[in-house]
């Protein structure tokens, strides 16, 4: 699942000019980001073979929480700019991204602390 999610993230960032442009190309037939999927799959393969399993579990969980922290912080920032956007089908209360940012950051910090202390 992480390979698919992170490859789509890499694809989106490449499309916006934040990463190498070739990661933002789609396969002409399947319309999937094959380059990004192969690169991210390669990184995952290297990590799986080089990092002990338990450390990899902690690393994956921590990275996931940091991504959720960033998403909530971005939503928080967007709600500050425009609290009631015109074309959004679901309005989220302002407290949701604030609580989400601190909850995810706190859980990531607790996980890092328990990993370092062990």
How is this structure best described in words?
The chain has helices at 2-15, 34-50, 53-81, 95-117. The chain is mostly helical and 118 residues long. Helix 1 crosses helix 2 (34-50) and helix 3 (53-81) runs antiparallel to helix 4. The chain is flat, with a radius of gyration of 17 Å.
Features of the shown structure:
118 residues; mainly alpha; 4 helices; 0% strand
Task: Tell me the distance between the termini.
Answer: 28 Å
Task: Bin the helical content.
Answer: over 70%
> What's the count of strands?
0
Helix and strand element order = HHHH
Q: How would a crystallographer describe the biggest sheet?
A: none
Shape: flat
Strand content: under 5%
Task: Summarize the entry for a quick read.
This protein is an all-alpha fold and 118 residues long.
Which secondary structure elements does this structure contain, and how are they paired or packed?
Layout (H helix, E strand, L loop, with lengths): L1 H14 L18 H17 L2 H29 L13 H23 L1
Helix pairs in contact: 1-2, 3-4
């Amino acid at each position: 699942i992480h390979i698919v999610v992170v490859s789509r993230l890499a694809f989106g960032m490449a499309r916006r000019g934040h990463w190498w442009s070739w990661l933002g190309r789609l396969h002409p037939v399947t319309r999937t980001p094959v380059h990004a999927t192969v690169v991210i799959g390669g990184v995952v393969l290297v990590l799986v073979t080089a990092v002990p399993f338990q450390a990899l579990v902690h690393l994956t969980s921590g990275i996931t929480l940091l991504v959720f922290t960033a998403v909530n912080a971005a939503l928080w920032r967007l709600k500050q700019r425009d609290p009631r956007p015109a074309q959004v089908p679901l309005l989220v209360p302002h407290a949701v991204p604030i609580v989400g940012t601190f909850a995810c950051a706190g859980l990531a910090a607790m996980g890092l602390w328990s990993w370092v202390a062990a």
